[in-house]
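Throughout our pipeline, every protein is held as a single compact record rather than as scattered files. Such a record has a labelled line for the sequence and another for the backbone structure tokens. This encoding replaces a full spatial description with a residue-level series of whole-number codes. For reference, a complete record is included directly beneath this paragraph.
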Amino acid sequence: MKLLVGLGNPGREYVGTRHNMGFMVIDRLASILEAPVKKRLFRALTGRGELAGEEIILAKPQTHMNLSGEAVGALLNWYKPGFSNLLVIYDDLDLPAGRLRLRPRGGAGGHKGMQSIIQALGTDVFPRLRVGIGRPQEPCAGADFVLKRFAPEETEKFAGIVEVAAEAVRCFICEGLEQAMNRYNRYNNSDNVYI
């Protein structure tokens, strides 16, 4: 079993914002796996599917970003997949837009959702997929930037990033974390190439 958690904020006002990249990737996976993410469980919306003979649980915490750990901790305790079978997907200001970074462990890097999860789980040793959203070109507080919707000229680029992130998650499920890291940590959507 794999538990795939995408981070974001619930509510119509947050749809299409940079901070909801995790939700967007989960929604794309839900479409691919034909596993609607609609069942409420432990303050999260969840869905259940299958890929390569493995049961897949998709989850979008509904606690708001800064309390994500409450939902993730409860889901992990309920499904008991083990830390190595948990994958948390979230936005990252420190990665250029168009870059992905899979890692087996690591700190929160200032991301409040990840801080909450690490605190709730009592460990930072679990896989994560950081989806680069870049930093604003003009002076702007990080919180304001991540809660902004994509500009019309960015929509296609970020749709492509979501698609490749979903491919990276499928690789993680089917071939393992190391293979997914080797393949997708070199991807640069800015040029649509592997570097």
Remarks:
- The helical segments are 21-33, 68-79, 112-121, 142-146, 155-175, 177-184.
- Strands lie at 2-6, 39-41, 44-51, 54-61, 86-92, 100-103, 128-132, 187-188, 193-194.
